[in-house]
Design brief:
The chain is an alpha/beta fold. It is built from 15 helices and 14 strands. The chain has helices at 29-43, 91-105, 116-126, 142-147, 156-169, 178-188, 211-218, 239-247, 272-284, 301-307, 322-329, 342-345, 360-371, 374-391, 394-424; strands spanning 9-12, 48-53, 62-66, 69-74, 111-115, 133-137, 172-175, 194-196, 225-230, 257-262, 291-295, 310-313, 334-337, 352-355. Strand 10, helix 9 (272-284) and strand 11 form a beta-alpha-beta unit. Helix 2 (91-105) packs across helix 3 and helix 8 (239-247) packs across helix 13 (360-371). It binds uridine-5'-diphosphate.
Length: 425
């Protein structure tokens, strides 16, 4: 049997820096995914470099996280935050910087795991320069995105073509839920090697503090009924639906009802327009007194999840939705849109409730059912925690990816040795 040495591997996430502050501007699930997968793979013996674009002059070019895991920031375009839709022209520069970095370090990656279509293109280009296995996670699909935005950006047709090519040519495409697998299959027909490996969460970070302690820390009264949103400010996240649902709650008028909308950057960030829009709707509906915007959360995030009675994920679409499993890990039930990967993670009536997206009345009814029944809330929370422990830990995700990489590397080594034998004969 061939033994595969754990050579250095590269996780490429051009637009999603794994070391940046999460929850603001465009930094969200992809950044968390790459960082946690990288760290967990390194724990399992892989040497992992996570390569991203340098987007600020004050950022270190290399961040060493653990002995086997580092973030590498390569030059590609202006050293400043740029919208994803404007990055494609700088991808050839990223490819050149990647090749130069390998030379400088005296290494050659044999496997790259690319994230999002921009990095997918980089992976396809790199394959023209060296023998390389490409594994790809799509994170967000152009076809779905463009079906729910008003202004389709000029990059759209290029993105759709590249996305399809990448899905059809990668050695393996990682779908994070059966729903995403079905969807990707419909895009690429029988072409495309798809495999489901879900996302994970940190079960030691979330779920280790009780609701009552969390409320003491945050100075929230034990009687309060707390509805929580966590995530970026982006129209497709459906925060408006949540705000309108809370305005329709049967508990409206009680000073116990609290709405916490967490996430978002400092004033002036690119997500500021959506935050201003949501704040205006909160004011217009007279919810200003019961709504809190704590901004981007980092260390305190686990405390907010624990303090909440219900976490709401009102997205119009969500390929996976890390927030749902983070809340479940924290024993907080979830009310979520019945879209994308959310029906994979949230089990209706057992860990939360699924409702049609953008249906504020359905969200209001579901939120009220949980807020008015604390013992059911606790039961949903316990089952949610169990589900995450069984199905959604980063170590479990990394084990599955590790097997996948090892198998692909073994297949490629076996193929190379057969070719060599034939050449000698
Ligand atoms: N997040 C965070 N702080 C915040 C808001 C969000 O750390 O203030 C994290 C959140 O915990 C989750 C990620 O951002 O891990 C969002 O991932 P998700 O898959 O839910 O959504 P995406 O951003 O990928 O659309």
């Amino acid at each position: 049997m061939l033994t595969i040495e754990k050579n250095p591997i590269a996780l490429i996430s051009v637009d999603g820096d794994p070391s940046i502050e999460i929850g603001q501007e465009e930094a969200g699930g992809q950044n968390v995914y790459v960082r946690q997968v990288g760290l967990a793979l390194a724990k399992q013996g892989w040497c992992v470099d996570m390569l991203t674009r340098r987007s600020s002059a004050s950022q270190a070019a290399i961040v060493q996280h653990t002995p086997n895991c580092r973030t590498i920031r390569l030059p590609a375009g202006p050293t400043e935050f740029m919208n994803r839709d404007e990055l494609f022209d700088y991808m050839p520069e990223f490819v050149q910087a990647f090749l130069a970095f390998q030379k400088q370090e005296g290494l050659q990656y044999s496997l790259v795991h690319t994230n999002y279509w921009l990095s997918g293109w980089v992976g396809m280009e790199l394959k023209k320069h060296q023998a390389l296995i490409q594994v790809h996670t799509n994170h967000s699909s152009g076809a779905i995105k463009y079906s729910c935005v008003e202004n389709i950006p000029p990059i759209a047709s290029k993105r759709l073509a590249i996305e399809k090519a990448c899905l059809e040519t990668a050695a393996r495409v990682v779908a994070t839920s059966p729903q995403e697998q079905d969807y990707l299959r419909s895009l690429v027909s029988t072409k495309g090697q798809l495999e489901i490996v879900p996302c994970g969460t940190d079960i030691e970070r979330f779920g280790t503090i009780s609701r009552s302690t969390a409320r003491e820390v945050l100075e929230i009264s034990p009687e309060a009924k707390v509805v929580l949103y966590v995530g970026r400010f982006d129209r497709r996240k459906g925060i408006e639906t949540l705000v309108r649902a809370v305005a329709k709650s049967s508990l409206r008028g009680s000073s116990d009802l609290k709405l916490i909308i967490a996430g978002g950057s400092r004033p002036g960030g690119s997500d500021g327009m959506e935050r201003d829009r949501i704040e205006a709707i909160v004011a217009e509906l007279g919810l200003g007194d019961i709504t809190i915007f704590p901004g981007r959360l980092d260390d305190e995030l686990s405390i907010y999840y624990a303090a909440a009675d219900v976490c709401v994920v009102p997205s119009h679409y969500e390929p996976f939705g890390l927030v749902a499993i983070e809340a479940m890990a924290s024993r907080t039930p979830v009310v979520a849109s019945n879209v994308g990967g959310l029906p994979f993670t949230v089990v209706p009536e057992l860990t939360g409730i699924l409702v049609p997206p953008q249906d504020e009345t359905a969200f209001a009814i579901a939120i009220d059912r949980i807020l008015t029944n604390p013992s059911w809330r606790d039961g949903l929370g316990e089952v949610g925690r169990l589900r995450v422990e069984i199905a959604f830990t980063w170590d479990g995700v990394a084990s599955r990816l590790s097997n996948l990489y090892s198998n692909l590397l073994a297949q490629s080594a076996a193929l190379a040795s057969t070719r060599k034998d034939r050449a000698v004969a």
